[in-house]
Design brief:
The chain has helices spanning 3-12, 19-31, 34-50, 67-70, 85-94, 121-131, 144-157, 182-190, and strands spanning 52-53, 60-61, 75-82, 99-103, 135-139, 163-166. The chain folds into 2 domains: 3-50, RecR Domain 1 (Helicase, Ruva Protein, domain 3, Orthogonal Bundle); 73-166, Dna Topoisomerase Vi A Subunit, Chain: A, domain 2 (3-Layer(aba) Sandwich), CATH 3.40.1360.10. Helix content is 45%, strand content 13%. By secondary structure, the protein is α/β, with parallel strands linked by helices. It is globular and about 60 Å long. Strands 4-3-5-6 form a 4-stranded parallel sheet. The chain is built from 8 helices and 6 strands; from the N terminus they run αααββαβαβαβαβα.
């Protein structure tokens, strides 16, 4: 196979990258200094051996315990459960959450064969007990799978007496009400707060 076509096909398998973007990226790498291509290739070839999953929360990092779990300024009594690491990154980018995380690395999806046994719920329960967590914030997507996972986690926490909350959902900043779907508008009214 042609090496350029091979690179384009591999790049196009990345999420959010179509064939046109993959082509543009491939030719950018070809047009760059040879050293850049070598560094990029070396980084990609060693990524799995250099990055570890945090043994406490499931986040990715260079050490056995990630920087967030090590941070003594974080409140260990508040835990936020997310479906994937990019969700954690998005919450961190917002800068308003100062607790700790637990990454599920998936959602309940019975039609796809993903039941509770495929998620690390036992590890989450253990973490809640061991860390003396008072509140679990469930920040799963607002989808059927995300809702099912949130309800399952709430049920799993009930015997522990831990407060379980769900992130609010509603109209996005700058969003027009006339273009907002019914479910989002309904949730916006349910999650309203006093001014």
């Amino acid at each position: 196979m042609d090496p350029i076509d091979e690179l384009i096909q591999l790049l196009a398998r990345l999420p959010g990258i179509g064939e046109r973007t993959a082509t543009r990226l491939a030719f950018y790498v070809l047009g760059s200094e040879r050293e850049y291509g070598a560094q990029l290739g070396a980084s990609l070839s060693h990524i799995h051996s250099r990055v570890k999953r945090c043994v406490q929360c499931g986040n990715y990092g260079a050490d056995e315990v990630c920087a967030i779990c090590k941070d003594p300024r974080r409140d260990p009594s508040i835990l936020c459960a997310v479906a994937r690491v990019p969700d954690l990154v998005a919450i961190e980018r917002a800068g308003s959450f100062r607790g700790r995380y637990f990454v599920l690395h998936g959602l309940l999806a019975p039609l796809d064969g993903i039941g509770p046994e495929k998620l690390p719920v036992d590890a989450l329960v253990k973490r809640v007990k061991d860390d003396g967590v008072k509140e679990l914030i469930v920040a799963t997507p607002l989808s059927v799978e995300g809702e099912a996972t949130a309800l399952y986690l709430a049920q799993a926490m009930r015997p522990l007496g831990v407060r379980v909350s769900r992130i609010a959902s509603g109209v996005p900043h700058g969003g027009e009400l006339e273009f907002t779907d019914q479910v989002t508008l309904g949730r916006a009214f349910e999650g309203r707060r006093e001014l």
